[in-house]
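job 3f2a | input accepted
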Amino acid sequence: MSTLDSPADAGPAPSRRELNKAATRQAITDAALALLRGKGPGNFTVEDIAEAAGISRRTFFNYFGSTDAALASIVHGFLDNAIQQLRLRPADEPLLESARAALVALADPKAVAPLAELFSLTQQSPLMAHPELEAWDHCRAQVFMVARERLAGTPSEADELYVHALAGSVISCGKAAMEVWFNRRGPDLSPASLAELRQLLIDAMALLGTGFTTPAPSTSRSS
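job 3f2a | predicted structure (223 res):
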């Protein structure tokens, strides 16, 4: 389950060095997730990850500062892909519609699989609470920046409360969708379960867009 599956980008093709760095980073996060899956939170070290990834301890620290940071990068990977899609949306499109479209663009349930597995493996452990919170806060900051760019030149641009509340609400809805999914599905990572998670993320954005005046579409409800 790779976090390298990024949305299409109109920028220049990455260099060989950039591809090698991305592959090493991916090997580290894959190794960390595999160890988390096999041993549980807090039961493996940086050295264990480095050995599983086929790299040196020093190389590990070129990419991450801790085992928690390596695992949190899985959350970063999905959220950064969503932010990239958000930035590709038309500048005059309402931000909440853009957020929903960005999640729709991540059409393959496999795109949410690493995020879903990490979430399910760490729900009972306080060890991952801080790194996961940092990853979501990073995304909130990115949404804030996009909102500021979109609202440039409008009355809302100068309203700090509006922009902060908007960015925070988007992230809170995303986290709520994850929690509802886990309550329903637990550790189930089947294609149907992942498809439901994706739909819950989309429906959460739809609720925000309507001001919570209408219920979420029935497609997100458990049968």
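job 3f2a | The radius of gyration is 18 Å.
job 3f2a | closed
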